Amino acid sequence: MEKKIVCRNRKAKHDYFIDEIYEAGIVLIGPEVKSLREGRASLKDSHARVRNGELFLYNMYITPYAFAHHLNIDPERTRKLLMQKREIKRLIGKTEEKGYSLIPLSIYLLRGIIKVELALAKGKKKYDKRHILKERELKRELNQLKKNNHY
Fold it and tell me: What are the φ and ψ backbone dihedral angles of 95, each rounded to 5 degrees?
């Protein structure tokens, strides 16, 4: 089972504390699938929400497929996500808790099927981000010192 990553949400791990990760299918139209196979999508500012017992993905941008002139599809339309009913019920309970959001981490091809990796995440504060960046910088400097045998 080899995954071919189509696109990633690079800012997600910087902006959120990730608690749990889920896999969901996605309902797409033909030209959208072709565009995704070419890697022409963006998850920037996208999020998922449960509405009427169903899961939907908002603000995901899929570049219109160049050779599909007969279909005018909105590149940022709301797309339905496919998950087991019990998982959706569990997500409803979790997202109603204070501060939790459903954020897509990546879109990938798994055996020819397009899947979305969703994370149950809690937003980081500005000082949390600064603290993490500072720790990362210190680790990098320590590794440089070890590498140069100065430690």
Answer: -75, -20
pLDDT digits (tens, 9 = 90+) for 106-135: 999 888 889 999 998 887 777 777 888 888
For residue 56, the domain's CATH number is 2.40.280.10
Distance CA 101, CA 57 (A): 12
Do residues 34 and 109 make contact, with C-beta atoms less than 8 angstroms apart?
A: no
The domain tally of the chain equals: 1
Give the CB-side neighbour count of residue 18, counting CA atoms within 13 A: 16
Q: Where are the alpha helices (DSSP H) in the chain?
A: 12-15, 30-37, 85-95, 126-147
Tell me which residue range forms the domain holding 112: 3-124
Model pTM greater than 0.85? no
